Amino acid sequence: MAGLKDTLKRLLFFREPEKIEKFILKENSTDRKIPETSITNDDLQNKEEQKNREKNETQNKKKNEDLLLKNSGKEKQDAQKNKKKESEDKSEISTSLSDNLEYMKKIYTVPINGDVVIREFKITFKDKTVDAFIIFIDGMTNGTVINTNMLQPLMLLSNLNIKDVSEGLEEHIKNRLVPHNQLKIFRSYKDVIDQINFGGCGLFVDGIDVAYAADAKGWEHRGVERPNTEMVIRGPQEGFTEVLRANTALVRKILKDEDLIVEDIAVGKRSRTPCAILYIKDITNDSLVEEVRKRIKSIRVDYVLDSGELEQYIEESSFLPAPQIFATERPDRVAYMLAQGRVAVIVHGSPFALVMPVTGTDLVHSAEDVYIRFPYATLLRLIRILGIFMALLLPGFYVAITNYHQEMIPTDLIFAISASREKVPFPSVVEILIMEVSFELIREAGIRIPGPIGPTLGIIGALILGQAAVAANIVSPILIIIVAVTGIGSFAVPNFSLAFAFRIMRFAFIFLGAAIGFLGITTGVFVMGIALCAAKSFGVPFMAPFGPRTAGSFANQIIRAPIWKQEKRDDYVNPKDIRRQAKISRGWIKRSPGKEGKGGK
Amino acid sequence: MASKIVFGKWESISLLAVLMSTQIFLGFPRLMVEAAGTGAWLLVIYAAVLAMLLFAVISKLYSPFEGKDIIDIGGLAGGNAGRIITGSIFLLYLIFIVSVSLREYAENMRIIYLNVTPISFVEMFFLAGMIAGAFMGIESIVRLGAILAPVIAVGFFMITFGIYPYYDFSKIFPVLGSGVNNIFLRGFSKISVFSAISILFLIAPFLKTNKNFKVTGYASIGISAVMLTWSSLINILAFDYPAALERLMPVFQMARLVNLGRFFQRVESLFMIAWAVSGFLYLSAVFFFIAYVFRKTFKLEYYRPVIFPFATLVFTISLMPPNVITATRLEIDYFRNYVWIISFVLPIVVLLIARARIKASKTGGAENA
Amino acid sequence: MPKKVCMLLVIFILCCMLPGCYDRQEVDDFAYVIAIGLDKGKINILRLTLQLAKPTVIGSGGGGEGGGGGGGSDGSEATTTIVVETPSIFSGLNMANNSLSKKLNLAHAKVMVFSKELAQEGIERYINAIPRTREIRPNISIAVSTSSAEDYIKAVQPHLEINPAKYYEMNYQTFKYTGLSINNDFHNFYSQMKSTYQSATAVLAGVNKFNSAEDFSLQSSTYDEKGRPYPLEGDFKAGDMPRESKLKAEIMGLAVFNGSRMVGELDGHETTMHLMVTGEYGHGFITIPDPIRKDYTVVLEVKRSRNPVCSVDISGERPRISVKVILEADIQTIQSGIEYEKPENMKILEKAYEDFLRESIIKYLKRTTEEFKSDICGFGKIAKAKFLTWDEWERYDWLNRYKDAEFNVEVDFKIRRTGLIVSTVPVTLSKEKEAP
Fold this sequence. Notes:
The complex is a heterotrimer. Chain A is α+β, with helices and mostly antiparallel strands. Chain A has helices at about 1-10, 35-60, 65-90, 95-110, 145-155, 170-175, 190-195, 245-255, 285-295, 305-315, 330-340, 370, 375-405, 410-420, 430-450, 455-470, 475-490, 495-515, 520-535, and strands spanning about 115-125, 130-135, 185, 200-205, 210-215, 260-265, 275-280, 325-330, 345, 355, 535, 540. Chain A is elongated. By secondary structure, chain B is mostly helical. Chain B has one domain: Amino acid/polyamine transporter I (Up-down Bundle), CATH 1.20.1740.10. Chain B contains 15 helices and two strands. Chain B has a two-stranded antiparallel sheet. Chain C is an alpha/beta fold. In chain C, strands 1, 2, 3, 4, 5, 6, 7, 8 and 9 form a nine-stranded mixed sheet that branches. In chain C, strands 10, 11, 12, 13 and 14 form a five-stranded mixed sheet that branches. Mean pLDDT of chain C is about 85; it is low at about 60-75. Chains in contact: A-B, A-C, B-C. At the A-B interface, helix 19 of A face helix 1, helix 5, helix 6 and helix 13 of B.
């Protein structure tokens, strides 16, 4: 009841907008004040909680005293729990080995947790024997690395006489005893636990209040294969895998630039999923990077498992019928977009990397457009745009024309349609809905049909089903063509998210076309156009460079110019360095004067 | 909020050109032929030249007020009262034109293919577009306009070129049409055709510099003059002089005539899309300005809450004329003959008063100091 | 915010569903009218004939048409006709709708046929119905039928195609390659009817009155008025052609209007002259008697080379109109075998054609001024350019002055190509019995 009243109130009355400044990507990144931004969300959350609390208190004072007491009691309990956890988390490693051992066993629930291994051993140091133990997770670690690089040197080599023994045990272990290429020292339990959780090996030594963690990752994973979704004919055939470091290595392998920064961030309270933000330091706008960092850091969830989830958490509008972040499986695509001045985020465990910001025309580009000659790229882009329009509008147009604008159909065709529709009992709208819904069913089912029958059944099923439906006089033959062309058009769109969004929107257009013909479709196009034009993707207007006309970025939007004309980076991303090719990028064109030969350009 | 929105030149030019040119799709060519016979195109050129001259005067007067819109200047001229008066006049003018245009568009749709649908249902679709546009703000409307304006122009030119078999250049003779008197003297009030230039005075704060302001004004008057002249010219070339007086929507009839071969005929429904889109742009832009002017005049903080009440108001007013003829007559007789006073004379008056006041205060200050 | 949008959307959709979808008509809910015929009614003002298409027959490839080749004229036809007597066109549609299961739709009507009687009374009142409605398209053809419109429409049962609409469309375009008829679509007809400088014309259509080749007669041909020994291809009007076929409908000739009343007819040959003067002539065969051997004929395929050059001099009492028609030709047949391909003979042939055409054009133009008193060629357009304002033009009153006009006609005729043959070798034969 209160919810309904609230909704009505929100519907009828005007709610003042929040006074937060929405992120706009400005020219100079020096305008942004960094510390302010990271507090805002927290402040707001606190303010809201406070308001709610006050409301509760004042309204329900008389009635719900018990509840109030319970509430505040619960709050107190929660607060205490939080404090305890914080104090425990932040606690330092103790010097007593047995304390450490007990604590680790408790944290990891050791006897029950089968794959956590604790190995105790002794180290010799300055003629003393010191106890130690390592802890690691079996299956996540490479046993050989642990044996050769940790256990062996500590257990065996520590017995050798080392000449200079002036340093303490802590320094000694780090400097001389553990020949491992990534050894870190930590003071708090939490950090060591994080490392162990991700394939590290933790080392605790009696009498030292720090612990060491070595990276011993070695789990089973898929190798670098062809990308599944973005196939090209001309171009590299490598796709991302699920391992973060392998993915960043794939990108670094292409760019080989020391200005490429790979920043590490962990997302998710429990999953602590490692993510990497990639950007090229002296091209990308700093405020863009800052905004990406801020958004990712402020996510408060337990588990973030895939880049798809991350995308949905950091995109601006969840309701826009177009994606605002670009997901790709190809490292060369990511490298190209980084060179354009954008920011990429790679999430561990997901073969899809996210690139932002993105504009409408990026969703029409495919990776191949850069590698092939420019007329072919232009033709392909025009065909894709045609595919987009058909996927969205073709059924709506068919319904509008046959129901309202019959005079538009040529006379021969109208007799053919009339004759074939004679025996069909349904009105056109119902016909087309039946066929569209069955097509979507076949598409969805085709994904899960096992074995080699899968894709074949999809196509054949659609055709045969269509033919059978025509023979049974359920639908008219021209409809099969319409539905098939619509489906094919939606496959022609390179971006999966966009194609999906348009698959949904076309139903809206069918209804609009059936309601009032071309006027309805125009209304739909207009409203969708307004929504897309108002949308921003990380501060960049979605329809740039057509929306706000930005200068000189038309060499590569829809019609691709020859490669020697691609001189500037996209202006709407506000990169620090706008020029990427010299004016005459092909040095061989210029010929020295006096030589015979064709004149250069 | 207002100071953060900036328009580029292309966006503002295309917005104003669309605002001034959508009348082509309604009844404008017939209006010109009514006024001047076969000299209709001359009349348009004459009106364009006059409008440019007047705009030159206004932009010269505007130079000390860089980045302010006409309502602010009204405030400078007469204080609170001045601001409210200027704002209310603009408000009434905008409400009137939006209601009449909404009614005209809906009636035209009904005549073309929706015979039985009640007018309120048709208007509801236009209203939906208007409200969506106004909610999202002028930025999105202008951006969409920048994308769609070339499409509309291309569609329009395709219609006019598609009827080339019907061109007959002897139809523009006699050249002076209904006579010099009719064209040049009585034709003065036809500068109201360019009355959408007053929207330029409202978006001056978004344009920021005077140079942008001037360039936008001249370019938009120029572009729409070309389109309007072309449409009047084709109207006479394709339809005859006396017969052209009869048609309600000349451009629609032109689209029906397109008959290039056995296949490329019957395409008027496609052009209807171009026309409906230009109608949407026009209506939503003007509707946004109603809410915006209201906010500015009465110094409110938000403009979004007033959108729904104004939508209802506009809807109701648009249903008031009893038939399509009165609605069109309202636009043609009263509006197009007298609105030049509001579009051109009022800004000049307000600017003069404001300048005089500023000079007075400056000299007063200089004396005091 | 999104919840608000959702609620708005729901309300919007509900509002859309409340009134229902008006004006939504399925394609097969319509009965498509292909031709409209208007006659003088016997018991009422107007007799309306509507020819409807049968999509099931047309769309499915005309199934029974092949079987009916033997003589079937009913059963599997592609069209059906309805005749109603009514006071006006739309009341007739209303009445006819009551017998049909589908709604009549005029958007695909291709031709509107008036009967001669009705045309002579004036068709303004019926033509005025068309521009207001959005259903009838402005490129519908206007025809006047020498017999009744009903007979003409019923006689249209096309044999070469299944779709009768296609028959109408294509038949009315034949003037481009025969030159014996015109195609004045409704838009032009209407403009001309209401213009101050041109009068309207419409093609003559008719039903062939010969049932078999034995019945052929030259009674209604105009050949002997012109002093010819035998009729040339254009000396007929629609319905009088010596032609026999199962498809009895035909078009040839022109109906001349003054205002909205028909005042006369032109036969095929005069129609060719009309097309040449207005510049709409495409190409066609023109036959004349051989200039050297009069009992043979020469056939040339004559084409319009450039647009005719017309000028009007209005300085004097009577308007003086000079017309120059520029044509070119290819030799099609030389029956006599005389070598007209040689330059000197070619000149004779060209001169013969020039004289022939010039005489015919002058005769035709004289007919328009003396008999019809209506300017169907549109010379008024050229006269109009000489005035500065509309009022002056209206005061000049061209339509009334046209009947006093004098003409000066020139024909520029050039033979360009001779086909595949460059010179003809005479036929050889052995001498027959020596003449005593």
